[in-house]
Automatic annotation (TrEMBL):
This is Cation:proton antiporter. Belongs to the monovalent cation:proton antiporter 2 (CPA2) transporter (TC 2.A.37) family. It comes from Methanochimaera problematica. Coiled coil: none annotated. The keyword Transmembrane helix applies.
Length: 375
């Protein structure tokens, strides 16, 4: 199995070099590598217990670093525009994702999972695009970043919703509440010592971060609550210490394990096994249009300009890591294949819209000007 992991990573390395050369997001290329190597393509690499463990680490570290960004004090300070823009994004995309899935023939239960995956944009691709395309100084960039934070919070509720829909929802929620409360109590009790440890310049901060995240995953298995939920909660609790240092130490683990997560998700998907390609492509197109609608409305609401909405849309079109996580944890093989195609299509289009957003705005303005002044 190690040969398969090595081959998958070699393909990812090649695709990463290509993505850097052409300034294009690597995530869809990692998935494409998995589709080529796995059940949908050559069939030369399969998943195993080792690959499943490594992919789960990628997701846990991603959610942990996501939790570090959820600082309660900053959210309270931004509550007006934060809530209004986030609510527009949530309402439009969840609604269109659900009804679009039902109209395309998916059962209601599966449509709920698809709608959640449909809604969540890729934070990784949005942030990377803003940096690579030098847009961080633009006024819309702050709105985009806070939209990603709002979606992270909604993701937490999505995890709770699906986790509590099992046989004993009250027991699951009660246990989760106690564990999360314990995290906050412990962090506040050892806040100064944790900050001092993270400030060291030896290997201890790195070892502490890695051990802490894995220990929490182990606790989740013992008490029977989702490790995704505890990873976010731990990150949020630790955001009162030294979140920048924690993210710095967690980032190397997150990045390498996430690559494994993307490529092996692609390996596990079998598009030849009854995936309705035409409806799924239709859903992918709807996903692009829904973010366009919500982006334009948010641009008008927050920045007073529909054109600002084009910039917001261009950076939020891509679905990625969280959509795949929802599909992988709570979806059937049909949903996994559906979401994989949607992520692949939207991330490719999103990479282009982020790169050429200025040209897109000029193009849309020219079209509207032409309609106002017909020959």
């Amino acid at each position: 199995m190690m040969e398969g992991i090595a081959l998958a990573l070699f393909f990812c390395l090649c695709f990463a070099i290509i993505s850097k050369k052409f300034n294009f997001p690597p995530i869809p290329l990692y998935m494409l590598a998995g589709l080529i190597l796995g059940a949908s393509g050559l069939g030369i690499v399969q998943t195993s217990e080792i690959s499943d463990f490594l992919t789960s680490l990628g997701l846990i570290f991603l959610l942990f670093t996501m939790g570090l960004e959820l600082k309660p004090s900053e959210l309270i300070g931004r509550k007006g525009s934060f809530v209004s823009s986030g609510t527009i994004d949530l309402g439009i995309n969840i609604m269109l994702g659900f009804f679009g899935s039902v109209l395309l023939g998916f059962p209601v239960e599966e449509a709920v999972v698809i709608a959640c995956a449909f809604y969540i944009s890729s934070s990784a691709m949005a942030v990377a695009s803003l940096i690579e395309n030098r847009k961080l100084a633009a006024p819309e960039s702050e709105t985009i970043l806070w939209l990603m934070v709002f979606e992270d919070i909604i993701l937490l509720f999505i995890i709770v919703f699906f986790s509590a829909s099992g046989e004993n929802p009250l027991e699951t929620l009660g246990m989760a509440f106690m564990v999360i409360a314990a995290f906050f109590v412990l962090v506040y009790g050892f806040k100064s010592k944790i900050s001092a440890l993270l400030s060291r310049d030896d290997e201890l901060p790195l070892l502490f971060t890695f051990t802490l995240v894995l220990t929490v995953a182990g606790i989740s298995d013992i008490v029977g609550i989702p490790e995704t939920l505890t990873a976010i909660a731990l990150g949020t609790a630790l955001s009162v210490t030294s979140p920048e240092l924690l993210e710095k130490h967690a980032m190397p683990f997150r990045d390498i394990f996430l690559i494994i997560f993307f490529v092996f998700f692609g390996i596990s998907v079998d598009l030849s096994n009854g995936i309705p390609i035409v409806p799924v492509l239709g859903l992918s197109i709807l996903a692009i249009l829904s973010k366009l609608i919500s982006g334009i409305l948010i641009g008008k609401k927050i920045h007073g300009s529909y054109w600002s909405g084009i910039d917001i849309w261009s950076e939020t079109t891509s679905r990625g890591e969280f959509s795949l996580a929802i599909a992988g944890y709570y979806g059937s093989p049909l949903i996994s294949g559906t979401v994989a195609v949607m992520v692949l299509v939207t991330s490719i289009i999103g990479g282009l819209t982020g790169k050429y957003s200025k040209h897109l705005k000029k193009y849309f303005k020219k079209i509207i000007a032409g309609k106002k002044n017909p020959a």
